[in-house]
Amino acid sequence: MAATSTPFASFRSWKQRLNWIRPGSIRLRTIRLRHVLLGVVATLGLGWALAAITLLALRWIDPPTTAVQIERRLQSLLHGPPYHKHCRFLPINQISPELQHAVVAAEDARFYQHHGFDWHEIQIAAEDDLEGTRSRGASTITQQLVKNLFFGTGRSYLRKGAEFVLVPVAELVLGKRRILELYLNVVEWGPGVYGADAAAHYHYRASARSLDRDQAARLAAILPSPLRRRPARMTRYSALIQERMHQMGW
To answer: Which residues contact 133 (CB under 8 A, 6 or more apart)?
Structure first.
């Protein structure tokens, strides 16, 4: 007599087939996922290593361009208006001490005390975020330099993570004086205007060495939004910066 097929037998047969197929399929997917993750980790590690080597080189070599400058050129090509870059690197001893002090007072008052991150300001910013009253950032000059050099003006958690692992490297290999020198020479101070020398000539028709206290404070005041702000309109904020400079002993 021929064997009759029952639903239970059919189910058992399919179960046996699935048990034969599943382990290999799962194993294959696991291997593929592992390869993808290893590729991602290797890519991130290589990117970090290249950025770290670049930072080490910047201890002696002045950067020919930055991510922000490249971003502005691409924006000009895609949307206009024409892009004209103004930038000349100066040793820090050729930049007015008033400007050095004004930038530190305005952007990172604990610059000489922290090691790349101002945890006090980060805590204040986080509390303001929770209350919905945030009115200032917590980025240090070192963080802003790393962002300027490698990441441009975009914001993302990925960029923040990359910045987080590069800032200690910058502090270690560059030191405070070189960090400030690089920042003052690459930061954006107007449309196509980068660095203290170009800023002094663009806004005051003067040299970076000759900037006085008021001019320095006004230039520092436009750093948070250099494409929109103008030094002549920064009377109240520049006065506040000068008061901070006085409190810091400058």
So the answer is: none
Query: Running DSSP on this structure, what letter comes out for residue 4?
Result: P
Cα-trace Rg, the chain: 27
Count of positions (residues) in the chain: 250
What are 250's two structure tokens? 């400058």
Claim: this prediction has a pTM higher than 0.85: no
14-68 tens-digit pLDDT: 555 545 455 566 777 777 777 777 777 777 678 778 999 999 999 999 999 999 9
Residue identified by tokens 């945030």 is 134
Q: What's the CA gap between 85 and 203, in Å, rounded? A: 15
The structure tokens listed for 101 are 């002090």
The CA dihedral of 198, 201, 207, 208, to the nearest 10 degrees, is -40
